[in-house]
Each structure stands twice: as structure tokens, then as C-alpha cells.
């Protein structure tokens, strides 16, 4: 797929998802402009940077307008402006009554963006609920990061250099 142009890849993904042709160009233009890659869509993906490829992959996953977004570390490799735009897109999607599930190791992002959170350690669900409820049961902890470290018992790890 690296030999395809960005727009060829997006149309290919739309075809795979059987997304209607109507609205496809509008989606591509809107998201590509928000991500700052509109002018590069005619170029081979092989020429794209890691961040540009990440943006294109996100667009390819969303081109069929799913009501539920499941994203694994979607902010990885994105520049600050594109990360901001993706977080805005996620919020807009939820505000329309849809759902976004995403994993992140950047707990400040989860703290600012999520309505509900899950804390998972080695496949075991340690917590699921709102941040407010979590903070209410851990009054001594100020941040999600501190609570996470307490729940996963990594806070007491000793690092030797």
C-alpha cells in the first residue's frame, strides 16, 4: 500500500468498508485539511513521514463513519496541532451520541478527555467508572497518574542507574 497515493488509499479503504461514494470526497477533504495533509494526498504514501502515515491510517479507519471508534494509542506520532484536532474530533463524535474507546499511556489526556476510564493491569480490569468517582475513593491522590501508580503498584519501584 505504500506505493498508493494518500487519496488512492483512502478510496481503497472506503471501498473495503463499502462506504457510499456520496460524501467520501467531503470527508477526505475535511479530515485531511484538519490534519494538515490535504496538499500531500496526491503523493505516494512511501514519501510520507511517520506522523503523516498515522493521520492517513486514522482517516482510513474512520472513512465509513462508524458510530463506535476504537483507537489504539491514536496520538502517537502526531504533531501537537494534529493531536489537538484528533481530540476535538473525538469529542465531536461523542457529542453526537456516539462512542470513542481509546487506549493511551498519556494519563493527562485521559484525565482531560474521557467521560469514563478503565485502568487495566496485565489484562485485569482494576477500575471502570468516572474520574470523579475514582478520585472520591482516593482522596489523598491529586491526579489520575498518582491514582494509576497506586492501583498498579508501580509507584514503589526502585530504579537503579
Strand order of the largest sheet: 1-2
What gyration radius follows from the Cα positions, in whole Å?
A: 19 Å
Proportion of residues in extended strands: 5-15%
The total count of helices amounts to 7
Largest sheet: 2 strands, parallel
Low-confidence spans: pLDDT under 50, at least 5 residues? Answer: 155-161
Helix content: 40-55%
Please state the structural category: alpha+beta
| Intertermini distance | 43 Å
User: Shape from CA axes?
Assistant: elongated
Secondary-structure element pattern, one letter each: HHHEHEHEEHH
Please state the average pLDDT score. 91
Tally the beta strands.
Answer: 4
What's the short story on this structure?
The protein is an alpha+beta fold and 161 residues long.
Task: Please name the defining characteristics of this protein.
single chain, 161 residues, alpha+beta, 47% helix, 13% strand, disordered C terminus
Amino acid at each position: 500500500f505504500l506505493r498508493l497515493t494518500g487519496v488512492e488509499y483512502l478510496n481503497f479503504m472506503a471501498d473495503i468498508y463499502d462506504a457510499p461514494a456520496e460524501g467520501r470526497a467531503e470527508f477526505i477533504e475535511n479530515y485531511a485539511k484538519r490534519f494538515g495533509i490535504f496538499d500531500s494526498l496526491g503523493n505516494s504514501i512511501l514519501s510520507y513521514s511517520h506522523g503523516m502515515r498515522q493521520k492517513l491510517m486514522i482517516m482510513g479507519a474512520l472513512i465509513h463513519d462508524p458510530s463506535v471508534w476504537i483507537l489504539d494509542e491514536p496520538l502517537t506520532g502526531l504533531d501537537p496541532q494534529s493531536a489537538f484536532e484528533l481530540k476535538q474530533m473525538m469529542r465531536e463524535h461523542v457529542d453526537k451520541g456516539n462512542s470513542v474507546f481509546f487506549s493511551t499511556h498519556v494519563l493527562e489526556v485521559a484525565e482531560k478527555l474521557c467521560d469514563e476510564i478503565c485502568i487495566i493491569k496485565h489484562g485485569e480490569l482494576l477500575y471502570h467508572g468516572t474520574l470523579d468517582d475514582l478520585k472520591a475513593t482516593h482522596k489523598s491522590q491529586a491526579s489520575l497518574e498518582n491514582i494509576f501508580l497506586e492501583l498498579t503498584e508501580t509507584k514503589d519501584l526502585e530504579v537503579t542507574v
